[in-house]
Design brief:
By secondary structure, this protein is α+β, with helices and mostly antiparallel strands. The chain folds into two domains: 3-77, P-loop containing nucleotide triphosphate hydrolases (Rossmann fold, 3-Layer(aba) Sandwich), CATH 3.40.50; 87-126. The chain contains three helices and four strands. The chain has helices at residues 43-51, 93-103, 108-121; strands at residues 3-14, 17-28, 58-63, 66-67. The chain has a four-stranded antiparallel beta sheet with strand order 2-1-3-4, with helices on one face. Strand 3 and strand 4 form a beta hairpin. Helix 2 (93-103) packs across helix 3 (108-121). The model has no long low-confidence stretch (mean pLDDT 90).
């Protein structure tokens, strides 16, 4: 079974504070893992490096064999829900779903149809 996620020698610091030092791990496809540690251990920093919100100081991160710092294509393979998601309060649910569809390059006609289906499935008002 191939590695879905590989981290090799990851280092990340903020100013003079070291957050992650020489982390290496691999996760096989179809497996579930947890990232555990006390506050300040670097868990959030590692996740942000994986999803591309932070650039590692050193090291390599591969998602399904794709180096995350050299390509955006891996992002369609992962999902990320931050601890405190910044949802735009000025958008309706329908508008927000349309926005997400545009981010994923869904064709406008298909997006409109799918958003309508989701609104109906979850009994959401327009």
């Amino acid at each position: 079974m191939e590695d879905l996620l590989q981290i090799k020698g990851l280092w990340r610091s903020y100013g003079g504070t070291l957050a992650v030092a020489d982390l290496s791990l691999s996760i096989k496809a179809g497996k579930i893992h947890g990232l555990l540690g006390p506050n300040g251990a670097g868990k959030t920093t590692v996740v942000k490096c994986i999803v591309g919100l932070l650039k590692p100081d050193k090291g390599e991160i591969l998602v399904n064999g794709i180096e995350v710092t050299s390509s955006e294509s891996y992002k369609s393979l992962i999902g990320y829900l931050p601890e405190d998601p910044a949802l735009p309060e000025y958008l309706t649910v329908e508008e927000f779903l349309g926005y997400l569809a545009r981010l994923r390059s869904v064709k406008p006609q298909e997006a409109k149809l799918r958003v309508g289906e989701l609104m109906e499935i979850f009994n959401l008002t327009r």
